[in-house]
Amino acid sequence: MKSGNLSLGKNESFKTGIRRLSLASIPSRKPQWRWDKNWSESQKVGINWYRYQTKILLPKLFPFAKECEKERPGTIVQEDGAPAHAHHIQDGIYSFHQVKRLLWPGKLARP
């Protein structure tokens, strides 16, 4: 294939076309995600287990459950199976604060 004064072979023209399309893999370092305290605050698209724990459980739900426990012993907190509610870290938090939780399955199997 001739282009102006340049003469390119079959492989060269193919490589040039790939480079121009930016499809060739460019060697680079793989990104590594690092957790930090402010990460959950910067994510405004939903609620994760950390935000649920720091914004809902500790300041609001646990004090409310403790107040309810005074008047109605045996109070149980019920939550659905949302990922923020069902995260394994929440089990330890409930145990630490001595709040009972009703385990609720996400979907019931039908016979």
Q: If you had to describe this structure to a student in words, what would you say it looks like?
A:
The protein is mostly helical. It has a domain at 56-111. It is 47% helix and 9% strand. The protein has 5 helices and 4 strands, in the order ββαααβααβ. It has helices at residues 10-21, 39-42, 49-71, 83-86, 88-96; strands at residues 2-3, 6-7, 76-78, 100-102. The strands form 2 sheets. Strands 1-2 form a two-stranded antiparallel ribbon. It has a two-stranded parallel sheet with strand order 3-4. Strand 1 and strand 2 form a beta hairpin. The longest helix has 23 residues, at 49-71. It is elongated. The protein starts with a strand and ends in a 9-residue tail after the last strand.
Average residue pLDDT: 77
Helix count equals: 5
How many β strands by DSSP?
4
| Rg for CA atoms | 28 Å
Which series of helices and strands comes N to C? EEHHHEHHE
Tell me the distance between the termini. 69 Å
Anisotropy-based shape: elongated
The computed structural class is mainly alpha
Q: How do the strands line up in the largest sheet?
A: 1-2
**Low-confidence parts:** none
Report the sheet-strand fraction.
Answer: 5-15%
Largest sheet: 2 strands, antiparallel
The proportion of residues forming helix, as a percent range, comes to 40-55%
